[in-house]
Amino acid sequence: MNEEELEKARRRLAAPAGAAGQPTTLDALASLDSMEGIAQAEKSPVPALLRRLPGAALVHAVYPGLLVALTIGIASAWLSTRYGAPVMLFALLLGMAFHFLHEEGRCVAGIEFAARNVLRLGVALLGVRITIEQIAGLGPGPVLMVVAGVATTILAGWGLARLLGLRSTLGIVSGGAVAICGASAALAISSVLPRNPALERDTILTVVAVTTLSTVAMVLYPPIAAMLGFSDTQAGIFLGGTIHDVAQVVGAGYMISAEAGEVSTYVKLLRVAMLLPVVFIIALIVARGAGRVAGARLPLPLFLFGFALLVGLNSTGLLPAALASFGADLSRWCLVTAIAALGMKTAFRELAVVGWRPVALIMAETGWLFALVLAALFLVL
Fold it and tell me: Across the chain, how many H-helices and E-strands are there?
């Protein structure tokens, strides 16, 4: 990856918060959940019609891309009804056809907003469809599987990076991204490692490779689950335990069935919950090695707590049926819109510029997690 390509990838991840002239509402959004924000819109005056609205600058920044993602989602829903294929797959493929909108221009910020923030709202609202009784029915097996998968994948990444002659930080960042929650984990873990240009490069390589491989997994893993004869519950555990990013897990799960989608979301959120202890432990190790107390800010995945709160309310029966139904419908539309935006962000050609060794490392980590989850399903769960 040359310097020009590196700079282009850096701009796509996110513009720096607090850039001159940007309103404070965009600055706040850029650090939302302390993990990842949105790419800020090009500087352009806010129309008079919007100036009186709360968060006018934010609305002005994101509405073009958000409308495009929603339009693709509506088209995907119609095609799904017409041809009987999974709506998430249509949203992904149609979104990829409009990737050029994510290259530059007014749609970039809205696409990023849909792929991250609308996604998180949709995942949180999935809590209205799940109860504690359903979760307890899975038993402690998925929890133990997730803990083992996260710990061993990060260690495997560190060891394989050294064997391939790569920086150990790349192994730690990529291992955490594969094991926990994709790009979010890569950015969070990177934030507590010693800052240097090599680390920034490692983070960008990881985000590009993990996002691409996760999209491939979203398409390939559901047929693999069917070939292996998994039940909906087993398929949900398999998908939630192996695919990197939250968006692709949700999309793949609901390609199979509603039950598989709910189970995969639960298992995936167990992995997301591991982000806090993992980042904290890495920060402590780095601080100890540096002989000082780390001042790094730990990420707070608010959508995870929203999901847990709604699961609790739904389990007690305090949530009115009409409100639960509305929440489920809103969640479904948020997720379809987010998957469409994710498709617009996907560019497989970017994977070719990172070189074979980082890709081999992340594929090996992915293969390790895949094998571990399959072994757990066949031998333990």
Answer: 18, 0
The answer to whether residues 242 and 365 touch, using CB atoms and an 8 Å cutoff, is no
The number of residues making up the chain comes to 381
pLDDT tens by residue, 275-306: 778 877 887 887 776 554 445 455 556 777 78
What is the separation, in whole angstroms, between the first and last Cα of the chain?
42
Report the alpha-carbon distance of residue 264 to residue 269 in Å, rounded.
Answer: 9
Confidence at 331, pLDDT banded by 50, 70, 90: confident
Neighbouring C-alpha atoms within 13 Å toward the C-beta of 353? 16
Phi, psi of 23 (to 5 degrees): -65, 155
Residue 96, Cβ density class (10 Å: 0-12 exposed, 13-18 middle, ≥19 buried): middle
Q: Is 302 in contact with 29 (CB distance < 8 Å)?
A: no
Amino acid letter, 34: S
Confidence of residue 22 (pLDDT cuts 50, 70, 90): very low
- 8 Å CB contact between 271 and 146: yes
Euclidean distance between CA atoms 296 and 284, whole angstroms: 10
Share the mean pLDDT of the chain: 78
- On the question of pLDDT at 14 being above 50, the answer is no
